What does this fold into?
Amino acid sequence: MLIADDQRLVRTGFRVILASEPGIEVIGEAANGIEAVELARSLQPDVVLMDIRMPHLDGFEATRKILAASSGKVLILTTFDSDEYVYEALRAGASGLLLKDAPADQLITAVRCVAAGDALIDPSVTRRLIARFTRSVRPAAPTPEIAAKLTARETDVLRLIARGLSNTEIAVELVIEESTVKTTSAEC
It folds into this structure.
């Protein structure tokens, strides 16, 4: 594992936490983005713990360069709880993002998760992203071409589905068999 952060005390803290864990070995430290890229190329760590705001080359660009030159994974750590930072970290190819105020056990779990090939985003950020995503995603409206191809019965069934009726309620409403409702709604 490589730790990249411009603050020596922060690097030391991360090293102490991570190096004491079985199966985690800290093989290098970088004080800026350029050093992080150079060390990642020469040491080939499985995981790079990357700060965002660093001199000479920010963490996003360093992440892009590291991932282009190695098979390692990058876990971004930041003090900035910003959606834009999350999106940029993901666009850069990071496997995870964790806030620096996370507890030590969460940091260790995140490193192990990323090393195993999984992705992880800080839980507080995840809740916010899910809420934002669910507000923005809307089902596609049927196109006129699709609507024109529906039979009168299919249109009736779809209208009742849209009102929230169950298959049984639709069958009663349209005076048809429930199996007909199921078949009709599946064809739509």
In short: The domain at 144-187 is CATH 1.10.10.10 (Arc Repressor Mutant, subunit A).
